[in-house]
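[job 4471] stage=fold_predict status=RUNNING
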Amino acid sequence: MRVGARAAPARPRRTPPADSCRELSDATHAPVCRRGFLEATTGSPDDAAITDSRPSPGTLLAMSAFLIRSAFTGFALWIATLIVPGLDFVGGSTNWEKFGIVVVVALIFGVVNAIIKPIVQILSIPLYILTLGLIHVVINAFMLEITAWITRNTTHWGLQVDDFFWSAIFGAIVISLVGWIVGLVLKEPA
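[job 4471] inference complete, writing structure tokens
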């Protein structure tokens, strides 16, 4: 510090009221107090810390990306039901109910694609090699069939696939094409 320079005044520490404190935090073994989304540990004045307990931006980005992908999947499913005979949404008497069914089916289809599809793809690596990748269409049709089975057996409304070979495979091709076109249209310039 320079001669004649004044030290910066110390900022007063804010401590939360005692009634909102838990006993001990896991890491610092100091009392932890909650105030909205922020946690303040009230140990010694030197090691007081404030941490943010909200989801990280990466988590929010992943969730919003999943929801956007699900919206486009719902659009692709709707186009497929218009084009493919034997692929249809069942249930809903008003337009809003039908829209809700499309959204729920798209979310279920997204979850099925996120959880079951990678396992099936890993198990079918030899078939990818033998068919030069054409098994991917059959796997997509199988994911449509699983989605239809889930919605049919749990809610009695949702996606209906009449025939696996023609309806599901042709529907998987249409969904892939619509998804590819939407991806081209919405692709950010490099």
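[job 4471] summary: Residues 120 and 158 are 23 Å apart (CA to CA).
[job 4471] exit 0
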